[in-house]
Design goal:
Order of helices and strands: HHEEEHHHEHEHEHHEEEHEHEEHHHEEHE
Structural class: alpha/beta
Helix content: 25-40%
Strand content: 15-25%
Shape: globular
CATH class of the largest domain: Alpha Beta
Number of helices: 15
CATH superfamily of the largest domain: Type I PLP-dependent aspartate aminotransferase-like (Major domain)
Number of strands: 15
Number of domains: 2
Strand order of the largest sheet: 4-12-11-10-7-5-6
Radius of gyration: 22 Å
Distance between the termini: 12 Å
Largest sheet: 7 strands, mixed
CATH topology of the largest domain: Aspartate Aminotransferase, domain 2
CATH architecture of the largest domain: 3-Layer(aba) Sandwich
Length: 430
């Protein structure tokens, strides 16, 4: 590093310490510790910090940068849109970028998911789905249907409504009381199935058992009170829990039986992470709503959204009906233009070709259990996780396993700093 680079890094660390409040992080890293890694450049799957150290961006930011860093065509699309129309809201107006993107997403989405409500991120998309589900049932003359069911350890966002759906108690107790109406059922972690109360059997039998716990919860709370079930195709928090064969089909049957909406939270899974545009395609089920964000723009500009079925949209399409909900920057022109170029690039790079590459990844991942410290390897698409274990049998969790399920965090013993999203490789200067 040159003296100028050293001075610049020191200046940035001072400003960060004095003024920057980081997300999900201990501020003491800056106020009492050596400082925070400052990322200054990205190219492909690599990033560089202010000291010139290169990292593999192992989590693509936060499961975001599917296209990789440094895509000039995406940056150029943003600049072009900003010059033409930098901003206008979707409050009683529209603009071409949001219209074209809604059309594109609706054509990519499965079944009759033909209507897109834009937000600026995943938590807002989940919040939208939660509020929409409650208002929808009021339009159907069923105003008591307001409760939502999700899975243990599942992360669905941190806004007050989304936090009610999130299944991580450690993220909620300091904000109690949260929005009421959220209830939890077992997730699909087959490795810990016994801890959930499963008596034993095949993965498929466990999947049906887990799905039936949703029915049990609906019956216990009363079908007349349950509005929706929120599930990720592959649950991320806790460590990549794919669903056994038949699980989602059984959940769909249960939702239809009790008149409950099924929301597929695909903030992480959508737009290629599982080798499909949407995870619901990968697992062969039809939701009533899909939430998305992250990879829709590969992080080059903030954008999220909720894709809504014809059935749920229909009551809002007539007369004086409206959905009194929205966000200033939802469907932002620049973000929408970025998403269009990002989706064009995904098509050029062959998102639907990804499933043909995945068997090699699966084979490599499943070699890991031969190592004595590995108790379990699981995942799907390009999302995989492992459990470390002191002994192979009986299987017991290692004390270094991160409760967040972040693989990188397990080797660091903490995942509350931005470093948990990157793995150092060399000290090369960019």
């Amino acid at each position: 590093m040159t003296l100028h680079e050293i001075d610049l890094q020191s200046d940035l660390q001072t400003k960060a310490r004095d003024h920057l409040w980081m997300h999900f992080a201990r501020q003491s890293v800056m106020t009492e510790g050596p400082g925070v890694p400052i990322i200054v450049k990205g190219e492909g799957h690599h990033i560089w910090d202010a000291a010139g150290k290169r990292y593999i961006d192992g989590l693509a930011g936060l499961f975001v940068v599917n296209a990789g860093h440094g895509r000039r065509r995406i940056a150029q699309a943003a600049a072009k849109q900003a010059e033409e129309l930098a901003f206008f809201p979707l409050w009683s107006y529209a603009h071409p970028a949001a219209i074209e993107l809604a059309d594109r997403i609706a054509h990519l989405a499965p079944g009759d998911l033909n209507h897109v409500f834009f937000s600026t991120g995943g938590g807002e998309a989940v919040e939208t789905a939660f509020k929409l589900a409650k208002q929808y049932w009021k339009t159907q003359g069923k105003p008591t249907k307001h409760k939502v069911i999700s899975r243990a350890i599942a992360y669905h966002g941190t806004t007050q409504g989304a936090l009610a759906i999130t299944g991580l108690p450690v993220m909620k107790h300091m904000f109690e009381p949260v929005t009421p109406g959220g209830f939890r059922v077992p997730n699909t972690n087959y490795y810990r199935a016994a801890e959930s109360g499963f008596g034993g059997g095949t993965p498929e039998e466990f999947g049906l058992w887990a799905a039936d716990r949703i029915e049990q919860m609906i019956q216990f709370e009363g079908p007349e009170t349950v509005a929706a079930v929120f599930l990720e195709p592959v649950q991320n928090a806790g460590g990549c829990f794919p669903a056994p064969a038949g699980y989602f089909q059984r959940v769909r049957e249960i939702c239809d039986k009790y008149d409950v909406l099924l929301v597929s939270d695909e903030v992480i899974c959508a737009f290629g992470r599982l080798g499909y545009y949407f995870g619901a395609e990968a697992y062969g089920y039809q939701p009533d709503m899909i939430t998305f964000a992250k990879a829709v723009t590969s992080g080059y500009s903030p954008l999220g959204g909720t894709i809504v079925s014809d059935r749920v949209y229909e009551p809002f399409a007539h007369g004086d009906a409206s959905f009194p909900h929205g966000y200033t920057f939802g469907g932002h022109p620049v973000s929408s233009a970025v998403a269009m170029e990002n989706l064009d690039g995904s098509r050029r790079r062959g998102v639907r070709d990804v499933p043909y590459e995945l068997p090699r990844l699966r084979l490599t991942a499943r070699e890991a259990p031969r190592l004595p410290i590995v108790g379990d390897v699981r995942g799907d698409g390009t999302s995989w996780a492992s459990n470390s274990s002191r002994t192979r049998s009986p299987r017991r969790p290692s004390t270094t396993t991160s409760p967040s399920g972040c693989c990188a965090a397990s080797s660091r013993r903490r995942c509350t700093t931005p470093a948990c999203t990157a793995v150092p490789t060399t000290a090369a200067t960019p």
